Amino acid sequence: MRLSLPVLLVTLALCCYEGNAFVCSSLIDDLTGFFWKPDEVYKAKLQKYNAPPEAVEAKMEVKKCVNQFSFVNKLLLTKTLGKVLVKCGFT
């Protein structure tokens, strides 16, 4: 299964779940950072969540795969995520 599909499904689950009608701006920052920020910058931003080191390393491992996406594919995914956020009520 391609990695972009699970990322999209997680985004849909987080944004469109009935109990969470509001999408916070830090989620958007996290999603865009996941695609576009350098690893060191993104890892530093993850530290603010006080996540276990294993969870941070797991997310960074996935980010290594995402870093291999082409620029065009990253743009398409970012555009799609933007459409999902608009559909879920974030303006």
From TrEMBL:
Range of residues in the leader sequence: 1-21
Classification via InterPro entries: Secretoglobin (IPR016126), Secretoglobin_sf (IPR035960)
Listed GO cellular component terms? extracellular space
Which Pfam families does the protein's record reference? Uteroglobin
Subcellular location, record wording: Secreted
Q: Which UniProt keywords apply?
A: Secreted, Signal
Where is it mostly found? secreted
Write down the superkingdom of origin: Eukaryota
Query: Record's family?
Result: Belongs to the secretoglobin family. Lipophilin subfamily.
The protein's name in its UniProt record: Secretoglobin family 1D member
